[in-house]
Amino acid sequence: MSGLLAGKRLLVTGVITDASIAFSVARLAQEHGATVVLTGYGRLSLVERIAKRLPSPAPLIELDVTNPDHLEGLADKVREHVDGLDGVVHSIGFAPQTCLGGGFLDAPWEDVATALHVSTFSYKSLAMAALPLMDRGGSVVGLTFDATVAWPVYDWMGVAKAGLESASRYLALHLGKHGIRSNLVSAGPLRTMAARSIPGFDAFEDAWVARAPLGWSLTDQEPAARAVLALLSDWFPATTGEIVHVDGGYHAIGA
C-alpha cells in the first residue's frame, strides 16, 4: 500500500457534515492509505449518512467527550475495529450561545464551564482515552482558531481555544516520553456548521479574504486537512507542541 499515511490507524472526531474539516481529513486519510475510525455524538444518524460519502466504509463509535464512561470504554470500542492507533484527530468544540456573539461580559460561569470542558479539557481527555492504543507512539492533532488575539463575536470560544493551545503544549511535554506528538492546525475562517452557529462570525470574513497574502477560500477545507495529514504522518517526527497556521498568511500581516 502506498500513500502518506500507508498502514496508519486513525481515530477522527468531529465529522458532522461534508463541510467539516474532519470530513476532509477522513477522506484524504483514506485516500493516502490510512484506516479510519470515526466518533460522533448527538446526531449519529447524520454522521452515519455523511460517512457513506467517504471513499471506504468507516466504523462509527459514539463518544461524548464529557462522559467518563464513554472515555473509559473508548479503547475497547476502537479495538473492535483496529488493533491500535497511530493518530488521533480532535475536531471538537462547543459553547452555549450566551458565550458567543458579543456576550463575553455577561456569560454565566456554568455556560463558560461547558465551553471549556467540551472545547479545551476534552483534548487531554481524548488523548488519555486513546493512550492505551498508542503503544507504538503516534500523533495527536487538534484544530484551533488563532487565540493570540481577541476576535469579534468569538468571545469565550476564543478563551477556550487559548486554553486548547496551551493544553497541546502540555500534552507535548507529558506524552513525549510515550513517543506521542501533540500539534494543532490553526485554520482561517471556514463556513462550517460550527462557524454558522456563531452569531456575526461572518463579520471579518471579507477582511480575511482581502488581506490574506495567499488569498483565502471560505469554503475549501482541504488546505487545513492536508496540514492535519502532514502532522499525522511520519514527516514531522521531531515536531511537537507546534501550531501550524493554515490561513493564507493572514496571521502574519499587521495591516
SS element count, helices: 8
| Average residue-wise pLDDT | 94
In the CATH hierarchy, the architecture is 3-Layer(aba) Sandwich
Summing up helix and strand content along with how strands pair, one would put the structural category as: alpha/beta
Radius of gyration (CA) equals: 17 Å
Mind telling me the CATH class? Answer: Alpha Beta
**Separation of the first and last Cα atoms:** 47 Å
Walk me through what this model shows.
The protein contains 8 helices and 7 strands. It has a single domain (9-252), classed as Rossmann fold, CATH 3.40.50.720. The N and C termini lie far apart (47 Å). With 255 residues, it is an alpha/beta fold. Helix 1 packs across helix 8, helix 3 packs parallel to helix 4 and helix 4 packs parallel to helix 5 (155-175). The chain has a 7-stranded parallel β-sheet, sandwiched between helices. Helix 4 links the parallel strand 4 and strand 5 (138-144).
List the helices and strands and how they pair.
Layout: E1 9-12, H1 21-31, E2 35-40, H2 44-51, E3 60-62, H3 68-79, E4 87-90, H4 109-130, E5 138-144, H5 155-175, E6 180-187, H6 193-196, H7 205-211, H8 222-232, E7 243-246
Parallel strand pairs: 1-2, 1-4, 2-3, 4-5, 5-6, 6-7
Structure keywords:
single chain; 255 residues; alpha/beta; Rossmann fold; 7-stranded parallel sheet; 8 helices; 38% helix; globular
Short description:
With 255 residues, the protein is of the alpha/beta class.
